[in-house]
Each structure stands twice: as C-alpha cells, then as structure tokens.
Amino acid sequence: MIELMRERWSDLILIVFLVIAGGVLVAKGVSLLESFWYAPSGQNTSVQKRSPLDNLSVIERGKLVFQSAGCTSCHLARLEPGGPLVGFPVGPSLSNVGMRRDERWLREHYIDPHKLVPGSKMNSFAYLPTEELDALVAYIKTFTPQREPAEEPNIVIAERFTQEQVERGKALFTSQGCVGCHMIGKSGGPIGPNLTKAGAHGRTDDWQLQHLKDPLSVYVIGPTDGIPWPMPSFGHLSEDDLRALVAYLQSLR
Prior knowledge:
Number of strands: 4
CATH class of the largest domain: Mainly Beta
Oligomer: single chain
Number of domains: 2
Radius of gyration: 32 Å
Shape: elongated
C-alpha cells in the first residue's frame, strides 16, 4: 500500500513538472512569434547596448577624461566655474589656460609635450582615443576668466616678511606690467593664471623667486634657452625687488 502511494506521488510530481515546462516553452514560442510577425519593418530587433558616456556632452566627457587621467595630480584647476581650486602645484596652473592656448597647441601638447616644451616633466597622453582627446581639449578651452570667482584677496603677511616689502612688491607688480596678464581680485589681465590666492597655492619662497627669474625653469628639466613661454623673465630686477615681489605674492590669501 505504501509503495503504491509513493508511485502515485512520483507520477503526480512528474506531471506537474511537465505542465510547468510546457507552459514555459509555449510562452517563449509566443514571444518569438510576436517578435517575428509584429516587429516594425526595417527595425533591428537586437538589443543595442549603449554606454553611459553617450548621454554626456562633449564638455562633460572632457571633464571625465581630465579627472580619470589624473591631471590634478600635477595641476591646479577649478573643475567647475567658481568652484574650489583643486590639485597640486607641480606643473603650471591651468587658470585661464583656455585664453592663452589654442586648440591646436593643446592637442599637440597632450600628444607630445616634449616637442613643444623640451624637457617638460609632463607625460604624453597620446594613448587617448581621438574622441577623448578632442573632448579633453574642449573642456580645457572652458578654463577662462569666467571660471574664476570674483573675490578680493586677503593680505596675510608672514613673519619672515615686512609690511614695507609687501607694499614695495605690490607697487612692482603694477610697474613691471604683471597686471597686464594676471588678475588679482577684479583688477588685471585674463591671460595668465589668476593670482588672487597666489600665497595659498603651496608654492615656496624659493619657487616663487626662481619662477620670477626664469619662469619656465620650474617646469622643465634642463636648459630653457630658446623655448617659447608666455611669461617673460624678471631676472633684470635687483635681488631686493625680486624678494619684495615674492613677499607680495606669498601674502595673497
């Protein structure tokens, strides 16, 4: 009797399994027929996989490339207009770089930095696909004065400097034409990096002094003779004048 009941239960389970399997097969078959008979003419019924990047604008893609390539490991930059300055002061500040460099120069510089700036410490980004390189250049071109916040600097004089040095440096900054290329607060030119917070960028006094004497030398390895660079040398100034300029720049916070 028990053996008979076991056989009947086994048969019942088998029947239930076959019914479920048959239902699944029928449903799949109906779905396949519908896709065959009712698909619009000329429509590709295969699923097209899209990258999340497809929904980004060229500028947004460029920002993503800029961050993923680690550009802020060596450069100071504002990722968003009016946003905080992020990065490290190893290479030139990218403040206003979209004003002083055209698209062709930027593209060639990313592909072969040493060709345009011999001895450059920057590595090549020639490995980037053309679309990513174009997006990166487009993003960098947005680095203009409109990206900088309109704010006045705080003057904080370190103990190693005197009030007289800072005032002298401020006067030299104007008389030597620095205001023609650099903004401090709402005054100055938009070509070079904004120096409103120059003293808060992590540059040492020695770096500032060398940068004034030979601007390109702090960014390259080797001689700088004959290499074109936007900023002129102020090596003709006396040591006292140079140190006064350093005192002024380092007091801008």
